[in-house]
Please model this.
Amino acid sequence: MSAGIVLQQMMIIFILILTGYAACRKNIIPAGVSKGISALVVNICNPAILIRSVFTVDDTVTNEKILLAVLAGAVMYCILLAVSWIFPRCLKVEEKWKNHYAMMCLFGNTGFIGIPLTAAVLGDQAVIYVAVVNTYFNLIFYTYGIHLADKENSHFSWKNFLNMGNLSIVVTLILFLLRPTIPEVLTSSINYMADTTTFLAMVVIGISLAGSNLKEIFTEGKLYLFIVLRFLAVPVVIGMILKLFVHDENIYGVMVLMAAVPVANLPLMRVEETGGDGQMLSKGIILSTILSLITIPLVVAFLC
Model:
């Protein structure tokens, strides 16, 4: 995996984000439409790109490699869980924001940015390993993540797991294991859906940028230190540990990228849904996304 290719892909992503930003600022796209586009990406486009990954899987992707990805993902999330407890305390974050910093540690944008970035840098066949990472993401988010987001109002519900993200992961893994012959009319339809993922996902982020107070975000000093630690130091540590036992380039590359992607949108959506104050999460998402143009290539350059 080349840092130059990653940098090039991040520049493409930012051009797409700026397209969404400009379209919103010029009222070509109303700000209120972002929820609908987000729902489209989450429920149709991202699932399509996950399922499409099975179409390009060849004999080099074995059950043993999937198990290795499961082990690598477990190690990565154990480190992130530890970091999510340590960083808010070491950085002396205000009590009301500790849970939000913990969520920013744990939940990277493995969907909106991680899936298209992996497909572009490593190829569609590597996205099968992103499905493994997203399984951990969803399991942790819909249990511990809900607790962090809802605080004292948190409660566990199996219904939280009944969503298109989890369903698409299950379908992807079943298709991988069974390797059925899929009619061309279905594969072509799924390909068309998947091809829209990157652009629509980046437009959503651009719309979010257009509706934000960038001056207020760029003056949040503590977030800069947090981003250096979480999105530079932590991915490097994770990469160095994984290199001890992960020797497959695609699996290793996916884990490095997933450790380095910026803060995910889902925690913010949950906090706002339950009436909480999501301003710190919003700042973290936007600032880490903007700075990922620098942080992700730097991590890859150091490790790969």
